[in-house]
Amino acid sequence: MILQIVGAFVAMFWFAVLIETPKKYLPLAGVVASVGWFVYLVCENMWADAVLATFCSAFTVTFISHLLARRMKTPVTIFLIAGIIPTVPGATMYRIAYYVILGDNQMSIHYLMEMFKIAGAIAVAIFIMDSLFRIAKKNGIKPGSITQNE
């Protein structure tokens, strides 16, 4: 598990370099991705299927991305893109193409449905967390605190 988390950090650090993330945010982008992958692994190993584990991971990544973006005064997408990539269902998309080529419609449809569920879980997690931060901002609540600003 530790090797996978370190691998997520290294891979997303270099992915962030590839998408031209500013140098000072590269380590943080890697940390967000590794925390997200850690949450995914823990959820999947303990009690959740891939869809629910993806939701929990994306929810955590979005939360951390919002906090870091406000703290560093930078767009949320700087951290969110690199953090979400490990949970994108790339292997599932490969399986869809593989079974389509083999002509196994039942398996390709199975994986297609799983891919839609995982992608939907990512989208819903981002939407919910973005909405919570917008509501908090509208009501004058500082992220990370319980009290309202006077």
How would you summarize the topology of this molecule?
Layout: H1 2-18, H2 26-46, H3 50-72, H4 77-84, H5 90-102, H6 105-138
What does this protein structure show overall?
The protein has 150 residues and is mainly alpha-helical. The chain has one domain. It is globular.
Characteristic terms for this protein:
150 residues; mainly alpha; globular; disordered C terminus
Structure summary:
This protein is an all-alpha fold and 150 residues long. It has six helices and no strands. It has one domain (2-138).
Q: For the CA atoms, what is the radius of gyration?
A: 17 Å
Reading the helices and strands in chain order gives: HHHHHH
SS-derived structural category: mainly alpha
Weakly predicted, low-confidence segments: 146-150
How many E-type strands?
A: 0
Average pLDDT level: 91
Q: Percent of residues in beta strands?
A: under 5%
